[in-house]
């Protein structure tokens, strides 16, 4: 009986396809090419991280084998002359608040454009203008913003920098959220309208559960762009409101460059975006599987 069962299982089990020698060679070559590209992309990251654990002498001598130490991190975090902890907090506050504002405005604008029956010329004009604005170099706007914020008392303030970051990243978020809102089935919105739901209820209970993956992806990009933004903050901020990119740049002075401290600060600046990507990766998958059912 056992022999018959094993024979039946062997006959009914799917046969695994055997790869030919040429197919295996192609697969090996493809993986080698991908690994080569990965090494090219990741090498600067590994170099910066390793430099953060070196002494200034070891780094300048180009030593590959060295004794790791934390002097660079200690100087960046605890030295009395270092403002990196304040810069880190400033970047976190500015990035989180500007990202929240961008997501709210972009989602409402996308829902209005694609679901409230605006004329086609309004939709195309607004999207076209947002593309043109996004193509303008941010440094060309910084001077005008500085003059305007100074006239209303918002120079060197969190409010002015947050408004600038929100304005810079809103066009990209509008395009991204427009794609996700446009893909929401019209039948769901119409069914909610027939049931008597108002626009805020439709947006909260119907649209947002479906576009959560888009919110996560847009939020990640917006926060990272805000975290890395340099020229606008260079013009609009001073020591009290300086962000991480400015804090890293301060280690390059006219007469000397603190390479170890700069590498340590750069390594620390990677952590928020890295942790955000790890968290949002699971959130996007959960949104894709649960949002469509809702």
UniProtKB/TrEMBL annotation:
This is Multiple sugar transport system permease protein. The chain crosses the membrane at residues 32-53, 92-114, 126-146, 158-181, 202-227, 262-280. Pfam families: BPD_transp_1 (PF00528). The lineage of its organism: Bacteria, Pseudomonadati, Pseudomonadota, Alphaproteobacteria, Rhodobacterales. It comes from Marinovum algicola. The keyword Ribosomal protein does not apply. Keywords: Cell membrane, Membrane, Sugar transport, Transmembrane, Transmembrane helix, Transport. It comes from the Bacteria. InterPro entries: BP-dep_ABC_trans_perm, MetI-like, MetI-like_sf. PROSITE patterns: ABC_TM1. GO terms for biological process: transmembrane transport. The keyword Transmembrane applies. CDD domains: TM_PBP2.
